[in-house]
Amino acid sequence: MKFAEQLKALRSELHLSQDNLASQLFVSRQAVSKWENGDGTPDLKTLVKLAEILHVSLDTLVLGTKPATGDHIDSSVFVYNPTTGEYERRRGGMNFWDFLAEYWWTVIALVTTIGIFFF
Amino acid sequence: MKFAEQLKALRSELHLSQDNLASQLFVSRQAVSKWENGDGTPDLKTLVKLAEILHVSLDTLVLGTKPATGDHIDSSVFVYNPTTGEYERRRGGMNFWDFLAEYWWTVIALVTTIGIFFF
DNA sequence: TATTTGCGCAACTGTGAGTTGCAAAGAAAG
DNA sequence: CTTTCTTTGCAACTCACAGTTGCGCAAATA
């Protein structure tokens, strides 16, 4: 989420003041200030207008990605269904125990740390 | 703003239920329903996660622009599980902080319980 | 038939996006 | 050096709407 930095950088590149940009988006000047300081994010409609004004893609504006869209970590879980012959997303998704199975060590560390703190 | 249609289309392509998708985003099933029916839009953070899960760029997801890279299921990542007899995709890393944001109370409860146990 | 799964709608809640108001730093003019 | 104008950040407030719970209803599935 490089949005805040991207916004500030792109705005200065175009030599726009927060006030000027805000008026184009029909929001208050302070709203833009918040976005740039990471104290909030615009709603989707405003975000799209913002990308247009700054002449960048949504990915560039929000993620700071260069024109080429890079791939990302895939966290999906698919299973092959023999009856349908299709790949289906496994049901259930994430739950607490799935999490514990992967991060039990973090929980242990956390408990230990807090334990030490109290002793 | 093709977001609603895009979401519905992309979700079905991946054979995901609203419920399944919602759990991955740590939101309620009905929230996803609203998005698809144009009765609302996700916040920026959720939108980014959504794009990742659906394997599309933000521009594709929000505006419906054609992606440069054609995305299809890569069979090389599927592994055969002898015990279940199914082809499964290895689980990727999940976002620790997203989880904490949702289940911090559970963690607190857990820590407290264990703390009490030791005292 | 009963049960499960997937989805939509109504009603409610609370958060945070956007607002107004105040203040400060820097530049430019007088 | 003051005055004024521009640009910006922060605090406090409000209310729109993102997200929630709860209910109902099809369509599969057992």
TrEMBL record, chains A, B:
Tell me if Protein biosynthesis is a UniProt keyword of this record: no
- Pfam families, sorted: HTH_3
Task: Look up keyword Iron and say if it applies.
Answer: no
Q: Where is the HTH cro/C1-type domain?
A: 7-61
- Keywords assigned: DNA-binding, Membrane, Transmembrane, Transmembrane helix
Q: Which spans are transmembrane here?
A: 99-118
Q: What is this protein called?
A: Helix-turn-helix transcriptional regulator
Its ancestry begins with: Bacteria, Bacillati, Bacillota, Bacilli, Lactobacillales
